[in-house]
Write a structure and sequence with these properties.
With 99 residues, this protein is mostly helical. It has one domain. It is 70% helix and 0% strand. The radius of gyration is 14 Å and the shape is globular. It comes from Slackia equolifaciens.
Length: 99
Amino acid sequence: KDVVRQRELAYSLHTLPEFRNICAHDERLYCAKVGKNSDKGFPELLRALKTVVTDQSYQRYLGEVADMVDGLEEAVPSLKTTFLDGMGISMEDLAAQGE
């Protein structure tokens, strides 16, 4: 990623601190909603992260999320769907984010 557009950077700089605050207060990130209308969820977090981190870091993060979801499926198969629904994303969406 050579050039970051001003609009993408502004979006990330407004979105990421809200998610950071959720983490700092030890709240659940996977189903969190932020923004003026509580309309930004995990997919928007991924979009914001992709703008400001290296491709290598982004791919590593996606891999860790996918591994965590797979671990849930092994431990309690019924939780995977609940977890992904709460995130507002599917495993296919997660894989596509990495492309």
